[in-house]
């Protein structure tokens, strides 16, 4: 994997974590997401 792709993946991971972390517990619950799963979901979003 090249440097630019790695950086873009990291940036997308951080953006996903930030957006989900800003949501209230109620909003996350409505989406079926547990707060403890945020980092795992962000990693999955980068892998796609």
Number of helices in the DSSP assignment: 3
Question: Based on CA inertia axes, which overall geometry fits?
Answer: elongated
Task: Report the mean per-residue pLDDT as an integer.
Answer: 94
Stretches where pLDDT is under 50 for at least 5 consecutive residues are none
Percentage of residues in strands: under 5%
Return the string of H and E elements: HHH
Number of domains: 1
Q: What's the helical proportion of residues?
A: over 70%
Radius of gyration: 12 Å
Give the N-to-C terminal Cα separation.
Answer: 14 Å
Assembly state (oligomeric) = single chain
InterPro entries: YjiS-like
Organism: Rhizobium rhizophilum
Domain YjiS-like: 3-39
Protein name: DUF1127 domain-containing protein
How would you explain this protein's 3D organization?
The protein has one domain (3-47). The protein is elongated. The model has no long low-confidence stretch (mean pLDDT 94). The protein is 77% helix and 0% strand. The chain is built from three helices and no strands. The chain is mainly α and 48 residues long. The chain has helices at residues 3-22, 25-31, 38-47. Residues 3-39 form the YjiS-like domain. InterPro entries: YjiS-like (IPR009506). This is DUF1127 domain-containing protein.
């Amino acid at each position: 994997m090249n440097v630019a792709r790695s950086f873009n993946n990291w940036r997308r991971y951080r953006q996903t974590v930030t957006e989900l972390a800003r949501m209230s517990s109620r909003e996350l619950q409505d989406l079926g997401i547990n707060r403890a799963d945020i980092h795992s979901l962000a990693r999955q979003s980068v892998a796609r």
